[in-house]
Design the sequence.
């Protein structure tokens, strides 16, 4: 699904990623762990080009999305991302947050359709006009329906018209997760989704993530939650100093780490 | 004091019985048209410039645009409004062989001028919005422009509303120089009332009071707008 080939990223003179090659298959739940400054967040943010890679390639949907000429927006619609600080749109209500991207994409499609029909009618383009059936109102009501359904799933339907500022951290993060789900992504990237939460709210977010995992969503998760890694991951990746040092199943990783660096890290976090 | 009351009476006589109110109303209308239209043009130009200036500068086209924008801002902030009016009216128009009414000239120059100031206000506003908002928008596949327009700028506007109010007030007051190119504003109206009798004391006092009233009304409107826009902060 995602093929990363020799990915490198530098900020100025500081090389953060020193050549990463890996493949993420459909249905996999990859958990990336490592000490801070190891480049794990940068790696994740390079996967959807939130940070432009300095070199290397990322093959997703049959295209190298690291190439700046590729329309990254189309690929990001299929690659959800969940941030440490939620990044919900503060000026939009909860339901508008969820509806925004689906409505935008459908509207754009409608516009392109109409434009192409017009060109055909003016004989500037070959082909037969495709009848346009959807209207903007329909697009919106469909998106609203879906958003309400998603909100019900996380039990927050009564918060639909509230602004993000009135939600708790856990609620915000759950809304952020279903916001990315609303686009029916092929994969969701999680960038330390529980690190900014109060301890008592971590559970509800992890619960939703486990739910997604059970339903077969492909996930790449950067986290410090070792429990989650043990329980959900199909593969654990240990990163240090911009390289992937170890890659193995969670069982093997936590009971029998191969490298010294990894043993050392685990001895510090698993007390 | 008697002398003053006499002057007041004489002023009101001209104002009410001899058609002076027509001039004042026309002046008030022109003043407001120039200030409001100037502000609107300024907001459009300012927002465009601010967007260009905060854009990531990977592409050469953006860098060129950015240079042009900073030149524009430097030009309009570096010269007084009166000079811009005069240059536009007496230099640009004849050179381009254009004819424009003096009110239209004033609107154009005020728009171009406030665009330069508003761009800096807007840039500050955009920079004050959490970069996570842009990332959130981009992560679901919205384009840079859409995210800017629908997510970042509305939040920026909320942050800069008090400063924008300032800019509008400044514009209203600065319209008092448009008579340099012959536009009939409030100043010219009262000046002509005064010159009819060679008595300027009361007309200019009245003018000052009208300016203060206008500014008070604007201040009130901004407060109401701000309260509405703050809705999303309080939550519900």
Sequence:
């Amino acid at each position: 699904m995602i093929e990363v080939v020799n990915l490198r990223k530098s900020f100025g003179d500081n090389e953060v990623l020193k050549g990463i090659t890996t493949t993420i298959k459909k249905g996999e739940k990859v958990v990336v762990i490592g000490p801070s400054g190891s480049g794990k967040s940068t790696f994740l943010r390079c996967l959807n080009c939130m940070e432009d890679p300095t070199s290397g390639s990322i093959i997703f949907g049959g295209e190298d999305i690291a190439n700046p000429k590729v329309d990254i927006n189309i690929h990001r619609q299929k690659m959800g991302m969940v941030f440490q600080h939620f990044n919900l749109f503060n000026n939009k209500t909860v339901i508008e947050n969820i509806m925004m991207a689906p409505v935008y994409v459908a509207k754009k499609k409608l516009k392109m359709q109409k434009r192409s029909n017009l060109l055909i009618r003016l004989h500037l383009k070959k082909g037969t006009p495709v009848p346009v059936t959807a209207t903007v109102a329909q697009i919106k009501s469909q998106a609203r329906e879906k958003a309400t359904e998603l909100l019900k799933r996380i039990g927050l339907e009564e918060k639909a018209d509230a602004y993000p500022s009135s939600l708790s951290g856990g609620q915000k993060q759950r809304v952020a997760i279903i916001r990315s789900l609303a686009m029916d992504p092929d994969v969701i990237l999680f960038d330390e989704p529980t690190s900014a939460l109060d301890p008592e709210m971590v559970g509800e977010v992890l619960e939703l993530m486990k739910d997604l995992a059970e339903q077969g969503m492909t996930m790449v998760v950067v986290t410090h939650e070792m429990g989650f890694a043990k329980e959900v991951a199909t593969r654990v990746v240990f990163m240090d100093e911009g390289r992937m040092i170890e890659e193995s199943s969670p069982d093997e990783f936590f009971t029998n780490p191969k490298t010294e660096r990894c043993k050392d890290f685990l001895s510090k976090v698993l007390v | 004091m008697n002398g003053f009351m006499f002057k007041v009476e004489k002023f009101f006589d001209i104002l009410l019985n001899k058609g002076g109110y027509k001039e004042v109303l026309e002046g008030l209308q022109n003043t407001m048209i120039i200030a409001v239209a100037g502000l609107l043009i300024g907001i459009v130009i300012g927002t465009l410039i601010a967007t260009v200036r905060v854009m990531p500068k990977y592409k050469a086209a953006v860098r060129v645009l950015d240079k042009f924008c900073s030149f524009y801002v430097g030009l309009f902030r570096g010269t007084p409004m009166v000079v811009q009016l005069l240059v536009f009216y007496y230099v640009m128009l004849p050179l381009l062989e254009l004819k424009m009414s003096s009110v239209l000239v004033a609107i154009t120059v005020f728009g171009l001028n406030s665009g330069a100031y508003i761009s800096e206000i807007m840039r500050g506003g955009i920079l004050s919005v959490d970069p996570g908002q842009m990332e959130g928008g981009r992560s679901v596949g919205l384009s840079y422009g859409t995210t800017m327009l629908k997510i970042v700028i509305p939040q920026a506007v909320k942050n800069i509303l008090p400063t924008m109010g300032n800019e509008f007030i400044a514009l209203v007051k600065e319209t008092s120089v448009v008579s340099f190119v012959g536009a009939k504003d409030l100043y010219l109206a009262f000046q002509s009332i005064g010159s009819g009798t060679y008595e300027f004391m009361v007309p200019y006092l009245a003018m000052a009071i009208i300016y203060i009233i206008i500014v008070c009304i604007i201040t009130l409107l901004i407060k109401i707008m701000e309260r509405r826009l703050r809705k999303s902060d309080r939550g519900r």
